[in-house]
Amino acid sequence: xxxxxxxxxxxxxxxxxxxxxxxxxxxxxxxxxxxxxxxxxxxxxxxxxxxxxxxxxxxxxxxxxxxxxxxxxxxxxxxxxxxxxxxxxxxxxxxxxxxxxxxxxxxx
Length: 108
Description:
Elements: E1 4-7, E2 10-13, H1 22-31, E3 40-48, E4 54-61, E5 66-69, H2 77-92, H3 96-106
Antiparallel strand pairs: 1-2, 3-4, 4-5
C-alpha cells in the first residue's frame, strides 16, 4: 500500500519503511480499523482464546462477520498458519452473546 502527499507539483509518493514493532501497527489498526479497507468495529484487543492464545484484534464487519487481525513479524509461515487455524476454529464457535461480552470486557 502506498501513501501519497499532495504537493503543489502534484502527488508525491512517500518512502516506505517497515514498522519496528507489531504493537505500533496494532495501535494504528485499533485506532482506525478502516485501514484494512473494510469498515470494522473492534470488539477487543488481545482477546484471550480458549487455547490460551491472544488475538491481536477481534472485529466485526457490517454484515456481522467476525474478523481476526493477527499481526506477525519474524515468524515462520508454518507458525502463522497453525495459529491462524487455531484462532479460526475458536472464532467459528462464538455466538452473539460471546462477542457482546468480549466487547464489554475490552472497551475503553
